[in-house]
């Protein structure tokens, strides 16, 4: 076990040793980077022990393992989180201060590993940490993208993307495992040899493992995140080269270079690109070959696989796991098809993360059959088999329809459990996404409400509040988050409320300073910090937020002497590079900010800031300093949300619709501590039936009319007055996400926020109650539930 009583002297000696012998640097010449590396290696050394111990125990006790397959792991920075979980955060700070180094500067020197787009990838990272905390033997499998999610800049208020480069510096947390490499085949043809099918690939790449240990709370357990890098199988095709075919000779290298080069940055619309399918198969095949090798090293009967192996598919991205596992069992291990099917299903679980039809993966059978010819056959056989087994199956249901392979149906049919990510979402998965399959397989669809790790999102990101919590209820809440309820008696007293407010203010002052430096806007820490941070998407309705902000500005200008509560509206988030409507919303927010921030009439009463390049590290800065959490998606569209949970934990009440996990947040925190507004999912469906819904809503709302009028007149785009004509037209006539229909309700709810904030004691009570009742949203609770309901795994701790 890890020595948690480790004295600063030992850590100091190790940092000095790594600086000299690993980095080859002399202290006087060492840069922040060198110090960061030295500290990272010294901390990493302390993870290796529990990591080995965990692995050894899993082998010795022949435990079942979880394999979490995900195209995305949105990890963020690792160093500070590792020190927190090892109980070395303050010791590390002290040691570095002894070297004359600023701990914060070292922490911020680490690039933010952005191997994901948003919620789905960040959830995978929180799950890895919770599995380690609970002692659930687990491997995360993903792709070691050379470039994570693009960096975002604003030019003239518009988003510009530049490549992200997290691997340009050495990455101290990973261990390359060139000995763990697998050949990944693509294309070619299927041949029948002795009555058995066999796939002869047309091209191959090598998947090379890179392992990062993931340590849990208090260093009691550590699991492995195994990311695959693509390498050419033949460094160079000498035969082709000698024939003079120089371009073709370099092909294997070119394929390998592109395969793990870059994360797909569009999580909104599925595009059907061959390279994406290849990435998905690359991850999945490498993972499954690795899983089978590990299993076979100690077991001989492959039919026992489900007793020892649970494979979770994070959305449909690795859904090729079904047919690939069947192929490996049948073609390479001689199992009968029906047995292979049953064995595969016993292992597989499928998590759905979206109902948006444009994000559901479907591959043209042409592309699918070309890249994965053997899998095309297997998919058709699975589909036929499923039809035969369920002869009531309606004709329009199936995996292959209209010359497309539907990955949702494939994942559903190949999984023993299918889950949604919030109570509401799981009901909608049953009712709207898979109604027929749900009827054929009752009980297969279950709910697993998302969660977030309180170690990163509370203990690490919000030190003032974490300290107050510990001072009030003692230690141990970090891995028993329900204990936050013990704060409730204290919240009744003014003293605790003021302490809660003081902790929040420390964070707000720090954020104000950062905003001043980063965005050049002066904001007062006494203003209400109102924050919407997430990917920019029409359904998330950043547009509703900025329209309401304009209405507020207009109202203040009409009556500047009234008793306004000063507000800072904070936006953060990236648009998919090809998503024109989302980019237009970004442009509008920045244009509106430019006008409002320089208006002497409204002055400090209203400011808008939109720091570029929102990422995990920025979230860690913003959320603890937030007063109000904007969760305003069109009801029925946000599967769960996880940012909403982070805000709640950090004492920011929600203004939100009855969507995703907001429903459960409201239930936990109580209506008196939540600003609810807007149409319900059911009302949304009904309202859409009226083709004139937006016109009617606008005509009924003087405030919204004024706002749209100002935008249309070019008040926020004086150099190009017609810039937003298209946008305004769409609000009037093609308002699919019901911005207009919910505007007045949102505006009124914002008024309620002002009232509550003006009553300081009331507000502090609401904020503190949000923290006290956030225990349910720990990802430890989520993972325990997956272990019980899907994986059938007992925690080792
Ligand atoms: C979709 C696609 C479509 C095709 C190409 C690339 C790509 C990459 C990512 C995605 C994921 C979209 C689904 C997603 O991120 N869902 C979010 O999952 C969160 C965790 O469950 C949940 O909290 C959010 O509400 C949900 O939007």
Automatic annotation (TrEMBL):
Pfam families: Phosphorylase
Tagged with keyword Repeat: no
Keywords on record: Allosteric enzyme, Carbohydrate metabolism, Glycosyltransferase, Pyridoxal phosphate, Transferase
Taxonomic lineage of the native organism: Bacteria, Pseudomonadati, Pseudomonadota, Alphaproteobacteria, Rhodobacterales
Regions annotated as coiled coil: none
UniProt record similarity statement: Belongs to the glycogen phosphorylase family.
Cellular component GO terms, alphabetical: cytoplasm
CDD domains: GT35_Glycogen_Phosphorylase
EC number: 2.4.1.1
Modified residues (N6-(pyridoxal phosphate)lysine): 646
GO molecular function: glycogen phosphorylase activity; pyridoxal phosphate binding
GO biological process: glycogen catabolic process
Protein name: Alpha-1,4 glucan phosphorylase
